[in-house]
Specification:
mainly alpha, elongated
Length: 421
């Protein structure tokens, strides 16, 4: 009995060091065993060996990045409970407050009990293929978007049940690859976080383009709507709106489609909505569109009141177009200030701004084109008003970001205060 306790203690010690333990025993036999004969008894213990397949150095950083992005990483393994916990601690999957569930414990749980347990569990050990499927189904019942990675035939039911099944391209079986939605060609966990980052970048860039174009459209519609209500002459003509949409909106919008990712893109919480039109996006589009319209109307009123209607139209046109061009630089991030760059400079955005400015200069300073677009030359005082009103559009967006940042910081402070109390 003492020997058995020593063997178990040795096994647990190695398991706590993230080692997979193999025990060796022998037995002398005079004859070959019969087909149904049980020979796994009365063995003499020879020793135990601990093996480890160390995780790549970059995996720990990837798991940390995923956690900051609001993504919970769960380990589902057939290893011993102690071994699984040791590995999970080393990788940062298991921290204080997390729980570990073994296959035996899981089998004794009802679906309702499992639904509560998965909220804090980050390690499942000694599980069967059916256990993996139950875990995936439980997470989905908790309204989680579940991505499952696996390589074997036993992983296939869980891979198919997950929202996103990810199979290993090198070591994965054909069955696992067939039922999966994605295949990792290099079998590296870091590829998953890289894909998430790229997906977020594409998602945010689409939102940037939508926000950029809709703000301009709302500004144009609001400007004409207000002018109609007050029975004013049209601050903008159809040719002005057409030019703004084609020359000063299209090129920056295309450039925003390839904008580099924000430095903090992996620190944003996941978006569970099924649409690009998040509540914050709708608010930004409406508030910015109305503000640009206000600046455009002020420019028209100043030009029309102190000079003549065509000067007012020219100033309104310039404010609308220049605001559109400048706001493209605000779209890098909805949280970071305009001077905080992404991972690299968007050269295409700079080029689009220069090209749009040149096109604007051509129609504003070429007499024949001035006549065609119903514009007039502006004085230095009028240009000063145009530039100031256009810069206000950038200022409004930056102030909104700053206020939103203060509100989030206050909410975080109140949450920490509540927890400490």
């Amino acid at each position: 009995m003492a020997d058995q306790d020593n063997i178990l203690a040795l096994s647990h010690k190695m398991s706590d060091q993230a080692l997979r333990v193999l025990g060796f025993a022998s037995k002398n036999m005079l004859n070959l065993p019969q087909e149904d004969e049980n020979i796994e008894e009365h063995l003499v213990f020879l020793g135990a060996v601990g093996m480890i397949d160390p995780a790549r150095d970059e995996v720990k950083a990837s798991i940390k990045m995923a956690r900051e992005a609001g993504i919970k990483t769960i380990m589902i393994t057939g290893d011993h409970k102690n071994t699984a916990v040791a590995i999970a601690k080393n990788l940062g999957i298991y921290t204080n407050g997390n729980t570990v569930i073994s296959g035996t414990e899981l089998n004794e749980m009802t679906d309702n009990e499992l639904d509560q347990a998965v909220k804090s569990a980050t390690v499942f050990a000694r599980v069967s293929p059916n256990d993996k499927l139950r875990i995936i189904q439980s997470l989905k019942r908790n309204d989680e978007v579940v991505a499952m990675t696996g390589d074997g035939v036993n992983d296939s039911p869980a891979l198919k049940a997950a929202d996103i099944g990810v199979a290993m391209g090198i070591g994965g079986t054909d069955v696992a690859k067939d039922v999966s939605d994605m295949i990792l060609l290099n079998d590296s966990f870091t590829t998953i976080t890289a894909a998430i980052r790229e997906g977020r970048k594409v998602y945010r860039n689409i939102q940037k383009v939508i926000q950029f174009l809709l703000v301009g459209n709302i500004a144009e519609i609001t400007t004409l709507f207000v002018a109609t209500i007050f029975n004013w002459d049209a601050p903008l003509l159809a040719v002005h709106i057409l030019w703004v949409n084609l020359a000063t909106a299209s090129l920056p919008a295309l450039a925003l489609g390839v904008d580099p990712a924000s430095k903090n893109i992996m620190k944003h919480k996941p978006v569970k909505t099924g649409t690009l039109f998040e509540k914050d996006l709708i608010w930004r589009v409406i508030s910015q569109g109305i503000f640009v319209a206000l600046m455009t109307l002020i420019a028209y009123w100043i030009g029309e009141s102190f000079d003549n209607p065509i000067a007012g139209q020219t100033m309104a046109f310039c404010v609308l177009a220049l605001s559109q061009m400048l706001r493209a630089f605000n779209q890098h991030s909805n949280t970071d200030p305009i001077w905080v760059r992404g991972s690299k400079i968007n050269v295409w955005l700079i080029i689009s701004f220069i090209v749009s400015a040149i096109l604007m200069g051509i129609i504003l300073f070429t007499p024949n084109l001035q006549t065609l677009f119903h514009l007039t030359s502006l004085t230095s005082r009028q240009w000063l008003v145009v530039i100031i009103l256009s810069l206000f559009s950038i200022l409004q967006v930056e102030i909104s970001k700053w206020i939103k940042k203060l509100i989030k910081a206050k909410q975080k402070e109140n949450k920490l205060q509540t927890v400490s109390d």
